[in-house]
């Protein structure tokens, strides 16, 4: 039976679990091998990163195991690329109700799937969505965008805000570094998702490999919507590329000058102390949102100057999904 | 104002450590630290060259700044031992390597060492899953032995008291009675502190996803090796150093992940406990050594750290530290001091040295280095 969750479209059977190793066939139905097995943690939404969705909010970040990509530089290889069967005992067995209960106990404003690829666990996420929605918890995710058209619709029905990893622009890059044949489905899905959901895009830069594609990516995103926030990540090579040179911050920053003319919200981070994490008003240039880049400690909101998502100086609207969420202590009056 | 230089490899930024805001400074001490940071890119916590980086960097800084007091941390064997599968022979070589680095440091610098092992590691026996409790269980900051239980139900208490892998369930008041603490600190202490049996660790909110292979073991006593004299308890190490520092250059060297069993130098056991409580290799141990007073409640085991993590706060680049501890070993010493190490966050916060240099890594992800200047001399 052919899987329709991602563009690998693997042939599945009772014993054949596809590239992601997360599905099997039982009585003519595709089922999850490890439903309701989750990891969870607490994070700031800026760390994930979402810079234009519920700024300042606390997220319950969740993940499962398995991935349909094999990125040569994967930073979560110890969980995303291991055989899920060997990991199932190391992550929590939790029902959707328990997971939502955990988010509430930890005073999280939203739930964000961010450890591995959500396409490998869509049925469980669909159930989680039902319970989270009843509890009033918005859901977001990070995805590699390699879903089929039908599963992309499903993804959009589950998640309110989505960060798509656009790791390069050419199929050549995707073949050599990601292990899939084509970039086209990802571009197609970004276009679709950006039309129906809040979308931010993240591109990890590998110097001398995909930095030459940055301008093309900027043009592509601008052709969809110049207000799509774009995060350029300085790649910290892990897994097979551990030991590779860290990209030059100066060179990448220079290369992004052209992108900044095409897109209104361009950020360059994933390194400690970055100067390129604040949001400038597209109208007057005032810095309306200040953030701190704590490197692998995640990013953090520092000052939010645009109440009602408007620039206080010129009144220009700042693209934002949801409003500012003050820290818990501030909300409880104990700050 | 304390200055922070973040070095993300081939790129540096100068910040005010307290506010995290960009700043400017061209004084010679700042230029010197910038240059040393540039010369010593950090190889990573589990990289075999990690401890060599500590020695090389410390020697460079000693050469440039000529301090009287150096605080040095070697932590590679702790991080690698925790997560990297290795044969016994390989582990022995790793331990020999760290002592060889210590030898190189003391020989080349001429400093008199005070070497303290933070405690042995043992193989993981099992995990205590607390994800199903009605309250909230939190095991903070890589702790293995301790977890906090907040807003516990009767069912939760039944579960934890009947779990054979949990050695002790300690009520807040019982815990506080062991140590002096302020009322603010008392508020952050969990209602119950759960204490695991040796070899067991908790799986809770805050536990890293990465699977542990070895964890800190029982460490009621930890090894200390020095020719300066006797320190029967970890609270006496500071006084021992202060008593001799005007007469000779001293290096306090903390060696993580090694206790009385694996320590390869002549040593005496040093008390690392109060009653049933012993310090794991964390900020409590470091702060107690540095200040000479027990420091359990600065970041109490199992506290709800996430409530502080997303709030507006100072010292954003100092991890979970909300301030720089006062009355530290080096800040109370008028002479020149440095601190260098590969346990990020602790080096620039705990010792109070004039100039500090540490790796900037979180959960083993290597982002570069952090240099801090607390004072100009």
Please describe the structure with a list of short key phrases separated by commas or semicolons.
heterodimer; A: 335 residues; alpha/beta; TIM Barrel; 9-stranded mixed sheet; 14 strands; 21% strand; B: alpha/beta; Gyrase A, domain 2; 2 domains; 20 strands; globular
Explain the layout of strands and helices.
The complex is a heterodimer of chains A (335) and B (377).
Chain A: E1 23-26, E2 29-32, E3 37-44, E4 58-63, H1 77-80, H2 84-87, E5 92-93, H3 96-105, E6 110-113, H4 122-134, E7 139-143, H5 149-158, E8 161-165, H6 171-178, H7 184-196, E9 198-205, H8 214-224, E10 230-234, H9 249-255, H10 257-262, E11 266-269, E12 279-280, E13 287-293, E14 299-304, H11 328-331
Parallel strand pairs in A: 4-6, 6-7, 7-8, 8-9, 9-10, 10-11
Antiparallel strand pairs in A: 1-2, 3-4, 3-5, 12-13, 13-14
Helix pairs in contact in A: 3-4, 4-5, 5-7
Chain B: E1 3-7, E2 12-16, H1 28-39, H2 50-65, E3 69-74, H3 76-83, H4 88-109, E4 112-117, E5 121-123, E6 126-129, E7 136-138, E8 146-150, H5 154-162, E9 166-171, H6 172-176, H7 183-188, E10 192-196, E11 200-203, E12 214-216, E13 221-226, H8 237-244, E14 250-255, E15 268-271, E16 273-274, E17 277-278, H9 283-291, H10 306-309, E18 337-341, H11 346-350, E19 355-362, E20 365-373
Parallel strand pairs in B: 3-14, 3-18, 4-14, 6-11, 18-19
Antiparallel strand pairs in B: 1-2, 1-20, 4-13, 5-12, 7-8, 8-10, 9-10, 13-15, 16-17, 19-20
């Amino acid at each position: 039976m052919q899987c329709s969750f991602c563009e690998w479209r693997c042939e599945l059977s009772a014993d054949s679990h596809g590239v992601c190793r997360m599905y099997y066939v039982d009585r003519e139905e595709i089922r999850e091998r490890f439903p309701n097995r989750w990891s969870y943690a607490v994070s700031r939404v800026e760390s994930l990163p979402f810079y234009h969705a519920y700024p300042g909010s606390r997220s319950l970040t969740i993940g499962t195991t398995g991935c349909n990509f094999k990125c040569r530089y994967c930073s979560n290889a110890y969980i995303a690329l291991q055989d899920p069967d060997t990991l199932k005992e190391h992550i929590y067995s939790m029902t959707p109700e328990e997971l939502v209960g955990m988010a509430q106990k930890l005073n999280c404003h939203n739930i964000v799937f961010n450890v591995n690829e959500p396409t490998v666990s869509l049925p469980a996420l669909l159930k989680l969505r039902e319970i989270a929605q009843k509890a009033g918890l918005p859901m977001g995710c990070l995805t590699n965008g390699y879903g089929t058209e039908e599963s992309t619709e499903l993804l959009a029905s589950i998640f309110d805000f989505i960060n798509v990893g656009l790791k390069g622009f050419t199929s050549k890059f995707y073949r050599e570094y990601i292990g899939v044949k084509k970039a086209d489905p990802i571009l197609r899905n970004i276009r679709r998702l950006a039309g129906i959901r809040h979308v931010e895009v993240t591109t990890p830069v590998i110097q001398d490999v995909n930095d030459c594609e940055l301008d093309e990516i900027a043009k592509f995103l601008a052709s969809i919507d110049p207000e799509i926030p774009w995060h350029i990540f300085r790649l910290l090579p892990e897994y097979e590329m551990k030991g590779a040179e860290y990209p030059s911050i100066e060179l990448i920053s220079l290369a992004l000058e052209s992108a900044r003319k095409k897109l209104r919200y361009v950020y360059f981070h994933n390194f400690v102390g970055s100067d390129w994490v604040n949001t400038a008003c597209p109208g007057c240039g005032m810095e309306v949102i200040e953030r701190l880049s704590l490197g692998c400690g995640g990013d953090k909101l520092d000052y939010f100057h645009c109440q009602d998502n408007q620039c206080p100086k010129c009144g220009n609207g700042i693209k934002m999904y949801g409003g500012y969420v003050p820290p818990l202590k501030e909300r409880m009056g104990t700050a | 104002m304390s200055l922070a230089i973040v070095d993300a490899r081939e790129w540096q930024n100068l910040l005010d450590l307290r506010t995290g805001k960009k700043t400017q400074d061209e004084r010679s001490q700042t230029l010197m630290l910038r240059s040393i940071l540039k010369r010593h890119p950090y190889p990573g916590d589990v990289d075999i060259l990690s401890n060599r980086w500590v020695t090389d960097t410390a020697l460079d800084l000693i050469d440039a700044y000529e301090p009287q007091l150096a605080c040095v941390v070697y932590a590679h064997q702790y991080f690698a031992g925790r997560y990297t599968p290795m044969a016994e022979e390989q582990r022995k070589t790793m331990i020999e390597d760290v002592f060889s680095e210590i030898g190189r440091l003391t020989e080349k610098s001429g400093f008199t060492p005070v070497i303290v092992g933070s405690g042995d590691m043992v193989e993981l026996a099992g995990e205590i899953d607390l994800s199903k409790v009605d309250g909230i269980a939190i095991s903070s900051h890589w702790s293995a032995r301790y977890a906090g239980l907040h807003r516990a139900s009767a069912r939760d208490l039944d579960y934890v008291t009947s779990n054979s892998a949990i050695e002790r369930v300690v009520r807040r008041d019982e815990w506080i009675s062991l140590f002096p603490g302020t009322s603010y600190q008392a508020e952050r202490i969990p209602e119950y502190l759960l204490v695991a049996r040796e070899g067991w660790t908790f799986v809770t909110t805050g536990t890293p996803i990465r699977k542990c292979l070895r964890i800190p073991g029982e460490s009621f006593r930890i090894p200390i090796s020095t020719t300066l004299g006797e320190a029967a308890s970890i609270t006496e190490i500071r006084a021992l150093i202060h008593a001799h520092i005007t007469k000779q250059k001293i290096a306090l060297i903390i060696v993580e992940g090694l206790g009385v069993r694996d320590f390869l130098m002549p040593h005496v056991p040093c008390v690392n406990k109060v009653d049933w409580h012993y310090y794991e290799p964390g900020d409590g141990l470091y702060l107690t050594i540095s200040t000479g007073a027990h420091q359990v409640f600065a970041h109490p085991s199992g506290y709800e750290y996430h409530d502080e993590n997303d709030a507006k706060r100072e010292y954003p680049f100092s991890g979970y530290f909300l301030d720089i501890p006062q009355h530290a070993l080096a800040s109370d010493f008028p002479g020149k001091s440095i601190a260098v190490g590969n346990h990020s966050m602790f080096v620039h916060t705990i010792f109070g040295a004039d100039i500090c240099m540490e790796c900037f890594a979180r959960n083993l992800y290597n982002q570069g280095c952090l240099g801090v200047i607390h004072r100009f001399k």
